[in-house]
Write a structure and sequence with these properties.
Blueprint: H1 15-23, H2 25-35, H3 40-46, H4 53-68, H5 74-83, H6 85-96
Length: about 100
């Protein structure tokens, strides 16, 4: 089975992406969702709505893992999505090779 390209606690490996994800988490989440075939804007908004954000984070994390051939249990994905969503989001971003830096 596949492995994650970066560890869950590798949040600070890309400080620019880390700062964007911390201050504008909907941007990173939307971009990661888009990389697995979901609508960037809809998922970006849903990714910050209280109560439902964890569920949509869970769905996207499961899609990223499946696409990469990573065998991650639903329980682990759920815990990461609800308890440490920013670290999970950065790990998924790295896995998908998503660029979150604004272009000038």
């Amino acid at each position: 089975m596949g492995e994650w390209k970066s560890p869950l606690w590798g949040c600070f490996d890309d400080i620019g992406a880390c700062l964007i994800t911390y201050f504008v988490p909907c941007w990173t989440f939307g971009k990661v969702a888009e990389s697995v075939g979901e609508d960037c804007i809809i998922y970006g908004i849903l990714g910050v709505v209280p109560i439902v954000y964890g569920y949509f984070r869970f769905l996207v994390r499961q899609k990223v893992a499946k696409k990469a051939g990573i065998d991650e249990s639903a329980l682990i994905s759920c815990l990461i999505s609800f308890c440490i969503p920013l670290c999970g989001n950065l790990q998924e971003r790295t896995q998908q090779g998503v660029d979150v830096m604004p272009r000038t």
